[in-house]
Write a structure and sequence with these properties.
2 domains; two-stranded antiparallel ribbon; Phosphorylase Kinase, domain 1; globular; 16% strand; four-stranded antiparallel sheet
Length: 244
């Protein structure tokens, strides 16, 4: 159905402007019931989108500020891959203090989602020690020597407690900050994994000690190399993963 599905949010629902960011989706600002919102059109399965919608609704109920999905006129939270979400005010983090607030918000996410079920079709970093594919990851497409280095980095996380990770919080474009709140947006890569993957932030805002930061940084670089392979950014990230 594509963007024609936007009519399910009301006869007056209309696209306004394409938004930057997001490789896998087409993202626009929209007007729904006279209010500005954000719409994302992609190819994720219904099970995948249900997982994301239920997560955001839960976090909203628990007091986190998140872009909750807005229902269609008949109560659905997505239609044919299209999701319409609440527009979140704010700007990107700019100072060390801003990034420390981001770290606090991430730790609240991790606390609230211990024991959360895995996103359908996804694999955690520890799963990828024994399997090659999961959603956007295909280790078979990477250089074998690179896969060995990535798996060595992820193996250092074995035994850690898992929870929902945002997946890409160190990108300033995925955070909205105001004087009184921090909002994480773009939950398209969120899944269940080890929280360390979320905590490699500018200026070491999560205040990890040297050993913990090295483990987290190596595992995060390996993850981003695998999930983005084979673009220029992924090649750069893989080069940061040391042989162990």
């Amino acid at each position: 159905m594509g963007w024609e599905a936007l009519g399910q949010w009301g006869e007056d629902a209309v696209r306004i402007e394409r938004l930057t960011g997001g490789v896998a989706n087409d993202v626009w600002s929209v007007r729904v019931h006279g209010q500005i919102a954000v719409a994302r059109l992609g190819s994720r399965s219904d099970a995948d989108l249900t997982w994301e919608a239920e997560l955001l609704q839960y976090l909203d109920r628990e007091g986190m500020t998140v872009p909750v999905p807005l229902p269609t006129t008949d109560g659905r939270l997505f239609v044919d891959g299209l999701v319409v979400m609440k527009y979140m005010e704010g700007g990107p983090p700019e100072t060390e203090s801003d990034w420390r607030r981001v770290a606090e918000t991430l730790r609240e996410l991790h606390r609230l989602t211990q024991g959360w079920p895995q996103r359908p079709g996804w694999r955690s970093s520890s799963d990828l020690l024994h399997t090659e594919t999961g959603t956007r990851i295909n280790l078979a497409a990477m250089p074998p020597e690179g896969v060995i280095r990535c798996r060595a980095a992820w193996a250092r996380l074995i035994g850690r407690q898992t929870c929902v990770v945002h997946g890409n919080p160190n990108s300033p474009g995925n955070v909205r900050i105001t004087a009184d709140r921090v909002t994480l947006i773009d939950w398209d890569e969120s899944h269940v994994d080890v929280p360390d993957l979320d905590l490699v932030l500018p200026d070491n805002a999560a205040d990890l000690d040297d050993g913990a930061h090295d483990i987290a940084a190596q595992a995060s670089a390996a993850w981003e190399a695998a999930v983005c392979w084979q673009d220029e950014y992924a090649v750069k990230r893989l080069a940061e993963v040391r042989a162990v």
